[in-house]
Amino acid sequence: MSTNETEASKYLNMDLLRFTTAGSVDDGKSTLIGRLLYDSKAIFDDQMEKIEESSRKKGDEYTNLALLTDGLSAEREQGITIDVAYRYFSTPNRKFIIADTPGHVQYTRNMVTGASTANLAIILVDARNGVIEQTCRHSFIASLLQIEHIILCVNKMDLVDYSEERFKEIRQQFRSFSSKLDIPDIHYIPISALYGDNVVDKSDNMPWYGGSSLLYTLENVQVDSDHNHVDSRFPVQWVTRPQSEEYPDYRGYAGKVAGGVFKPGDEIIALPSGFTSTIDTVETYENEEEEVFAPMSVTMTLEDDIDISRGDMIAKPDNQPTVGQDIDLMVCWLNKEPLKPNGKYAIKHTTKDARCIIKEVKYKVNINTLHRVEGDKEIGLNDIGRIHIRTTEPLFYDSYKRNRATGSVIIIDEYTNETVGAGMIL
Ligand SMILES: Nc1nc2c(ncn2[C@@H]2O[C@H](COP(=O)(O)OP(=O)(O)OP(=O)(O)O)[C@@H](O)[C@H]2O)c(=O)[nH]1
């Protein structure tokens, strides 16, 4: 291998952490991401020159790191809908993908999209304001989405004189709230995104803080595998039939593995038909593989010609998903039109499209207390509630806790085609 190839393969094989950032408007998200990229030397020099120049033009005393992420808003102004921007950077120790979710009004929606594949969420609070409703909302969503690690960054410490007491107060506020949530690992870091305190390097301004910097924490937090490698699930996206002279009977099933491992010789079952067969080959775009696993995109061929079409699920006979039409969900509502009890919606689950009726709104959750709201079941924009639906066709699903891919659904308004809800199967 040439040096370039060695470098490239080292990079590809590097450990990856996906994280998302959440905070309310002006808590300093853009500044923080800019600071992380800048201090970890991930910004290219030409980008930096542009930013310095534009900061000078605006008369900023400090290079305005928020400008680094502002390309996003320009795109939004052009009418291109980008709810989440993915940014990539790496240090010698780890690769990172940041799902950067803009903090405007549609924050719940963006956070759900950005966080659904994240291993970790950074939740920012302004040291002057402490824990506010949005902090609670974001943490609750993070716990619903089964994000295992949260870093609560108490930002703008410079504006509270780097006060240890203030930091401890906020940490206590968040501890008492988060004790009611299912989040296994929470870190607390006092930072100043603007001046770089505790972002990449430990700060001299807060000698009382004994923990690690944000970057060090991001580099070292232990993430389990993103994917369920136990329950084999392959939702079929399409059936390929090239019908070439060489292979007149070829029939391949293409899609993305949603869980477990598949290899030639494995016995499989196709749902909903229940027919069984044996895997002949599994291949990726480039190669025939010895085995494939989540989240690889693959084409599978079987030894028997059985009836399988888009939206069907290939699993193993001794480990099948639940098949059903009556489903309990926690739903995050993403549309300004509230959820219609008894309303009909389109629903997307893995590669399957179906329709559903909302049979019952069981309760709405009060984001601050995490209790049920008594006497009010209207699920409006940014609300979270528990609902029961009935689908027109059976879905092949797992609980969200077990498998994020086969345990989530998207609810769509049939008339406007807008995504109105994101659901996690209980
Ligand atoms: N003093 C001080 N100001 C900060 C700090 N971090 C961010 N700011 C300022 O707070 C303001 C908001 O920062 P942004 O990074 O744009 O905030 P944001 O959360 O990304 O805001 P949106 O993009 O609107 O969601 C800017 O004027 C920043 O310069 C900090 O640590 N200390």
UniProtKB/TrEMBL annotation:
<dbReference type="InterPro" id="IPR031157">
    <property type="entry name" value="G_TR_CS"/>
</dbReference>
<dbReference type="InterPro" id="IPR044138">
    <property type="entry name" value="CysN_II"/>
</dbReference>
<feature type="domain" description="Tr-type G">
    <location>
        <begin position="14"/>
        <end position="226"/>
    </location>
</feature>
<dbReference type="InterPro" id="IPR011779">
    <property type="entry name" value="SO4_adenylTrfase_lsu"/>
</dbReference>
<keyword id="KW-0067">ATP-binding</keyword>
<dbReference type="Pfam" id="PF22594">
    <property type="entry name" value="GTP-eEF1A_C"/>
</dbReference>
<dbReference type="InterPro" id="IPR027417">
    <property type="entry name" value="P-loop_NTPase"/>
</dbReference>
<dbReference type="GO" id="GO:0004781">
    <property type="term" value="F:sulfate adenylyltransferase (ATP) activity"/>
</dbReference>
<keyword id="KW-0548">Nucleotidyltransferase</keyword>
<protein>
    <recommendedName>
        <fullName>sulfate adenylyltransferase</fullName>
        <ecNumber>2.7.7.4</ecNumber>
    </recommendedName>
</protein>
<keyword id="KW-0808">Transferase</keyword>
<dbReference type="InterPro" id="IPR044139">
    <property type="entry name" value="CysN_NoDQ_III"/>
</dbReference>
<dbReference type="Pfam" id="PF00009">
    <property type="entry name" value="GTP_EFTU"/>
</dbReference>
<keyword id="KW-0547">Nucleotide-binding</keyword>
<dbReference type="InterPro" id="IPR041757">
    <property type="entry name" value="CysN_GTP-bd"/>
</dbReference>
<keyword id="KW-0342">GTP-binding</keyword>
<dbReference type="InterPro" id="IPR054696">
    <property type="entry name" value="GTP-eEF1A_C"/>
</dbReference>
<dbReference type="InterPro" id="IPR009001">
    <property type="entry name" value="Transl_elong_EF1A/Init_IF2_C"/>
</dbReference>
<dbReference type="InterPro" id="IPR009000">
    <property type="entry name" value="Transl_B-barrel_sf"/>
</dbReference>
<dbReference type="InterPro" id="IPR000795">
    <property type="entry name" value="T_Tr_GTP-bd_dom"/>
</dbReference>
<dbReference type="InterPro" id="IPR050100">
    <property type="entry name" value="TRAFAC_GTPase_members"/>
</dbReference>
